[in-house]
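Let us work through a complete example step by step.
Step 1: write down the sequence.
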Amino acid sequence: MSLLRWLGVTPDGPDSDKTLDDETDTMRRIATELETLPEERARYLAAFAYILGRVAYADASVSPRETTKMQEIVQTLGHLPQAQAVLVVEIAKSQVRLLGGTEDFLVSRRFREMATRQQRLELLECVFAVTAADDSVTVVEEGQARQISKELRLSHDDFIAARSGYHEHLEALKSLRRKQAAPRD
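Step 2: predict the structure and record it as tokens.
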């Protein structure tokens, strides 16, 4: 079953008739792990992890440091054992790679509906923590974070507040500093 369909954001259609038998052993093991969580909590964590994966994949790759940061966040905020956090993150990364772009807004909307304002702000802070995990927030990643902020219906001030904790990692500012520090002839 697709993570997005499980979240309730993808309608059933002709391609949705796949059964568990069509899935790999790994996917069966992951599904079994997630079944131990209460359904609403699992959906919340799945959407949360998907959005983290979305920003990590904004530059068309997810670094090992971004993956580790996502796992730490999901484990801590989700109160999950490490093995479950790893599985949730791997599912989310896989879904972002497969379906990203076409389903991003739907997952963000679903998360917005499930979450309080404080939880949405917490997610935005985590988005920046993931992008800065490799000591670099690219312009593309910052743009994706801004889009997520808008989809979560957070204000520009909320976005700036979340970003402010990571300004030393912003590539746009690093580039400007390098130009200013370069010797002039």
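Step 3: interpret the result. Residues 11-24 have pLDDT under 50 and may be disordered.
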